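Input record (one chain):
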Amino acid sequence: MSEPLVGPTSHSYISQRLRLHYVDWGNPDAPPLLLVHGGRDHCRNWDWVAEALRHDYHIIAPDLRGHGDSEWMIGGGYVLPDFIYDIAQLVHQNELAPVNIVSHSLGGMISLAFTGLFPEKVRRVVAIEGLGLSPKREATLKEQHSHERMQTWVEELRANSARQPRRYPSLREAWERMQEANPHLTPEQARHLTVHGVNRNEDGSYSWKFDNYTRVNAPHGLSPARIRELWGRIDCPTLLVRGNESWASDPAIDGRLELFNAARSVNIDAAGHWVHHDQLDEFLGHVRSFLE
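The corresponding structure, as predicted from the sequence alone:
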C-alpha cells in the first residue's frame, strides 16, 4: 500500500437554499482549477488528480447537489439548469473566474454548459465523456411523443420513491461492489472511493451517499438543441476525452466535435468511462500539456 493521500479542507456554500459541500486543496495564489465529478459520484474521486496538480493550481472540487456531502433536493427533480447554477454560485462566491475546469460525465455536461453560458469566466475546459447521449440515442428519444416521455418520467419517479438505499453489512462488501462496477479500478482505488462515498447507518451497515432520485431523468430542463447552442458559445480551448473501452460515442466521428469553436478530442486506450481512474498517468499528461 502506498502512503495515504494528504486530504484537503472541507467547506460549504449555499445555492438555492441548499448547503453544498466542496473541498479545497490549498495553494490559493495559484491559478484556480475546478474539478467537477459525474453522476452518483463524489468530490473525493478526484483525489489522485488533485494530488498530482495541487502544487501548480488552486484546486476546488465540489460535491454536486444530491451527491457526496452536499444536501439532497426536496422533491424529485435533478435537472441540468440547477446544477449549472450551483457551479455559477461556487465560482462567483469564491471569485475563481477566469477558472480552469476538468470534469467528468454529468460534471462535463454541467461544465460545458456553464462555459457556454459564461464564456468569459472559463480559461480552459476539459470534459471526460461529458457530451451526454449520443446522437443516435437522441434520435430515438425524439421519436417519442411528449406525453410518452412524461408518462415514463411519472412511472420512474413513482418506482424510485419506493426504492430504499441499499445497505451493505460491511465496508468490504461496499468496496467489492465498487470494484465490480469498474473492473479497471485497483483494490486501493476502489477502497478509497468507497470510504469517501458511503455513510454509516445506525445499525452499523453502509449506504452510498448519493440520492437515488438522481437516477431519474426529468423530461424538463435543457433540450439537446439548447445544449448544442451553448457549446457553440464556448470560445476557450476545449479538450474532450474519451476511453476507447467506454460506451460513449467518439465526438470526432459522430459530428459533435464540429459543434465547438476551439475543441479537440483524444481517445485513451485501455480505459472505460472513468478515464481519470483507468489511465491516470496518460490522462494527467494530456491535462498538463493542455492547461499549460
